TrEMBL record:
Species lineage: Bacteria, Bacillati, Actinomycetota, Actinomycetes, Micromonosporales
Record key words, sorted: Cell membrane, Membrane, Transmembrane, Transmembrane helix
Record field: transmembrane: 34-55, 76-101, 107-129, 136-155, 175-199, 228-248, 260-278, 285-303, 309-329
Stated name of the protein: ABC transporter permease
Topology in the lipid bilayer: Multi-pass membrane protein
CDD domains per UniProt: TM_PBP1_transp_AraH_like
Lineage top rank: taxon: Bacteria
Amino acid sequence: MTDTKPADAALLEQGEDRGGPVRAFVSSQVAGPLAALVLAVLVFSLTTSTFLNAGNLSLIATQSVVVGTLALGQTLIILTAGIDLANGAIMVMAAVVIGKLATDGNALWALVAGLVVCLVLGGLNGVLISRFSLPPFIVTLGVLSVLTAAARLYTDSQSYPISSDLLTILNDGPSIGGVDITYGVMLWIGLTAVLGYALTQTAWGVRVYAVGDNRAAAALTGIKVKRVLLSVYLTAAVVYAFAAWQALGRTPTADPSGYGTANLDSITAVVIGGTSLFGGRGGVVGTFIGALIVTVLANGLTQAGIDSLYQQVATGVLVVIAVAVDHFVRTRQTR
């Protein structure tokens, strides 16, 4: 008898090995970044006297949330073998829309408007890439250029101070053992958990990996590739809206010229976290760790009195090493 099992059930069975939480945590894609993070913390705690202070640990956590949240959405797109150079610009556009509307009206409706802005812009990217098969790099580069100008035109190049408690609440939070854990950090952890579950425990997640690994083969198995790609860009857009909220809490000013390198910073966190730029490998847990690695590295070198230019050199070297390792692993697997 032939197997008549539904396609989604078959996909889930194929993804079960990937989905085990313990197995995923100790897999090489997570273990490598985690070992690097532990090593960096160990080195800086031994070479500086202030690194492990409660205040400094709080600073590391809060400095990571905006790019870390943005990188979660970037991870989804890179898993499909795409890239989003406009994610930082989308976040800033949403932030200035929220900031400007909040000065004239209700902060809650301003947040909703920011979410709509992200969905429209993310959906535009998704449609151009999925329906018209345009290269993600070119599409998002063009959108980046447009939004960089649009944010300044919309605000007349002015910044809007944020006074609403709702818009800045993510920078508040309890103190645990002397370490301030903001609601923004909690949100970042929560988003990582939700997206991690969606990627490893649902048929949608398996399809995302399948599309990124081999788009043609995924189509032959019955996966609606265009629909999956569009859903990924829309989901990433929702994450960008949360990042905009995080940014307003982190620095209570809606600045159209802010976060100019957020797109590259998010890609750095994704790559250092073990997600392959070629698609189909990696995950949001690794990205979470990758964002912490970048912040710990910058913070630790600052604590050690190292020039910021050398910090950029160290981060760049880590990115090159991560990409080289991924290329080596993929080359061995295809032999």
